[in-house]
Automatic annotation (TrEMBL):
Transmembrane segment boundaries: none
Assigned GO CC terms: mitochondrion
Pfam families: GTP1_OBG
One function term, GO molecular function aspect: GTP binding
UniProt organism field: Pongo abelii
Coiled coil: none
Protein name (Swiss-Prot/TrEMBL): GTPBP10 isoform 2
Amino acid sequence: MVHRSCVLFRKYGNFIDNLRLFTRGGCGGMGYPRLGGEGGKGGDVWVVAQNRMTLKQLKDKYPQKRFVAGVGANSKVSALKGSKGKDCEIPVPVGISVTDENGKIIDSQMLENPLC
């Protein structure tokens, strides 16, 4: 006798209310103290509101949910001032609230195009 089982999963839809992301700004470059050189500043992470973006699209486009900015360049003899790291932009829908891991609101009701 063969027993067969079937489990039905209820599909609730594609609506996503919140999304947790990992973000980190870039590290600064090393200086050159002997010659007074300064390392480059690390890159920044920007949250950019876009009109036709949804949280589901953000999750599908970036499944790893990690956003890390670039590292600043080190100072060297030929270039005493290191270059800045590459910035990272996160596209989000208009009207969301951005909070940190402790629940503190960083920005709320984002408008289109302004950077956070």
